[in-house]
Amino acid sequence: MPLTSLDISNLRNIEKTALHCHSSLNVIVGANGSGKSSLLEAIYLLGRGRSFRTSSHRSIVQNGQKEIFIVGKTTEQSAQFIGIHISDGNLKAKANGQYLSKSSQLALILPLLMISPDADKLILGSPKQRRRFIDWGLFHVEQGYLTQWKRYNRVLTQRNTLLRQGACEETRYWDEQLITHANNLTQARMEYCMALEEIFQDYLALLTSGLQLDLSYRPGWSADETFSTALSQGLERDIKSGFTQKGPHRADLYITTHNRKAASYLSGGQQKLAACALILAQAKLLNERLGNTGVLLVDDLPAELDLNHRQNFLALLRELGSQLFVTTTEESLLPLDSFSDYSVFHVEHGQVSAIKKT
Ligand SMILES: Nc1ncnc2c1ncn2[C@@H]1O[C@H](COP(=O)(O)OP(=O)(O)O)[C@@H](O)[C@H]1O
Ligand SMILES: [Mg+2]
Fold it and tell me: Exposed end of the chain (fewer CB within 10 Å): N or C?
């Protein structure tokens, strides 16, 4: 039960609210524009230190107000209170009253994943989105992954600077380190993607009627050569462009069906379901490895799903064991029969009220 209570002040149209969170399911009901996504945004800010809608902290402060306060009480022994304070466009995060220097520290206290209305970007979007997806998944479950990732990126930046300065002899010095870090990253990502694929296939089968999809991790250089060979063979091109062309920073998770890219083959609804299967698989891996401590935010899920798919989806959510926050415009759109116990909150013009606890 990661989040037990949530206090929000001055976030978009939510002026002030305090709520007790249910350990299993929290349903947030309200008309369009009432403030449902803003409520999820508050939780997201607590877990990630940023909004999922904008990079401008200023724009989420309520019009006419100066600062946002968000406080969450968690069951995490080491950090029972986590907080976010935004003022003058700056965000500060706290845990148990102490300022945190990095928002990644929040993510360790409140591991959080989200299925948003634009989840299909995971299928349709650029490789960067899928790399970020893999990196976040790994960051949550593998201690030390973030450090590895930073090391690789630091050396990459240094190499690129030298390339632009035309110091190609000196790049060789960095290449050795780059290769070590690249191989570490690639190994971690490949293992993660293999574990993910197995669970993804189960979810896909349960969510769709026989949709066939394959996942394969492409490391960012040709699979039939080592990264070391790819680097030395690409040096001339790298010098010309002033940029390292190959490496884990160009990796992708290929999602294909019948050897074609899923993005150009699947219908909109299928893309959404495939993305849901991916995120659910990630949530399941996270819960397995951390012991059921994850939070999953689901914003406006039913938009594209028919009743049957919604039913399947909710049954899967229940089995997952994550603490759930699910928004909907109508409670009747969510067939909640698989849940025996949950809380419902009604949101109207930014006012949140608990309307039922079964
Ligand atoms: N900085 C702000 N100050 C006050 N209201 C805002 C601000 N930003 C957005 N809003 C308003 O907050 C409301 C909440 O929107 P949102 O949370 O997206 O609603 P929902 O998800 O329920 O459709 C919208 O009506 C929007 O116009
Ligand atoms: Mg919304």
Answer: C
